[in-house]
User: Which sequence fits this backbone?
């Protein structure tokens, strides 16, 4: 069942190093070659394969020559389903791991050295979402400008207050409720005056399927000249599928889709925005959902 949704303010520019900001994203796949074809056809990405055998042919996706994401295969049978992974910047990965576990998180891997790139940690937060952390060795980071690049990232969870508390302790985020806190429970997380991430409280009416677990969702900008609906059609042509049909919001026109391996992500055209509703309580976030239930 489709429900009204809110989202945080999508970013439009590359950001400097700030602990707690998104530093990198990558996607796992049961068919790496097929995934490369899918994202190349959807976003125009090109690829650079890491020759280091320790990286297991990890592929870096490029847009106009700048890194936008990583693609990696998963062993069969896979320990985890194909999914997008968000990595948050850390100034001290050992300290991040300590605070992460003390707060109720569970470390899955690391801290481990990534040759030439820094140090990485992966874990599961107390609400069940897999999250990564990256202590960079240099200035390399995800490119976040223009169509085909990351625009926003949000945590979808069944326990919003717990997630807010946990990550505020981890990175000192200032958090703001932009929904009504009941029908739409959505907080934005910021540091240093910069809004970085969002957190959506899932409910039984919103989640599809009903047993959908907590997860991070990246948003990718689409070219406003072609629009979100054409991008969704392209997803279907390339073998992906649509979880939420395009709908309008005050933040842009949005759709939630998945690649052929099942990794979910969102598409957004921030140029197509609704005027803010005037009959909603202060702090509410209204959207025009075509399913409007």
Assistant:
């Amino acid at each position: 069942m489709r429900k009204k949704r809110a989202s945080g303010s999508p970013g439009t520019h590359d950001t400097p190093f700030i602990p707690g900001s998104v530093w990198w994203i990558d996607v796992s796949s049961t068919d790496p070659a097929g995934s490369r074809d899918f994202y190349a056809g959807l976003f125009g990405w090109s690829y650079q394969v890491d020759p280091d055998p320790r990286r297991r042919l990890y592929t870096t996706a490029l847009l106009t020559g700048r890194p936008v994401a990583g693609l990696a295969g998963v062993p069969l049978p896979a320990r985890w389903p194909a999914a997008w992974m968000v990595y948050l910047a850390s100034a001290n990965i050992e300290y991040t791991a300590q605070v992460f576990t003390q707060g109720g998180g569970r470390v899955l891997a690391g801290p481990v050295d990534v040759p030439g790139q820094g140090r990485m940690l992966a874990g599961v937060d107390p609400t069940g979402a897999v999250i990564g952390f990256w202590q960079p060795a240099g200035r390399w980071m995800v490119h976040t400008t223009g169509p085909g690049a990351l625009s926003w990232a949000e945590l979808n969870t069944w326990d919003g207050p717990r997630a807010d508390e946990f990550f505020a302790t981890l990175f000192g985020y200032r958090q703001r409720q932009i929904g009504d806190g009941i029908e739409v429970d959505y907080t934005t997380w910021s540091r240093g005056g910069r809004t970085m991430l969002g957190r959506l409280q899932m409910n039984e009416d919103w989640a599809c399927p009903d047993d959908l677990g907590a997860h991070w969702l990246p948003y990718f900008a689409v070219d406003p000249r072609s629009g979100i609906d054409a991008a969704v059609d392209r997803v279907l042509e390339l073998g992906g599928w649509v979880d939420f049909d395009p709908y309008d919001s005050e933040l842009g026109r949005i759709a939630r889709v998945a690649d052929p391996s099942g990794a979910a992500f969102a598409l957004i055209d921030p140029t197509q925005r609704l005027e803010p509703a005037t009959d909603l309580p202060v702090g509410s976030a209204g959207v025009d959902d075509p399913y409007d239930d």
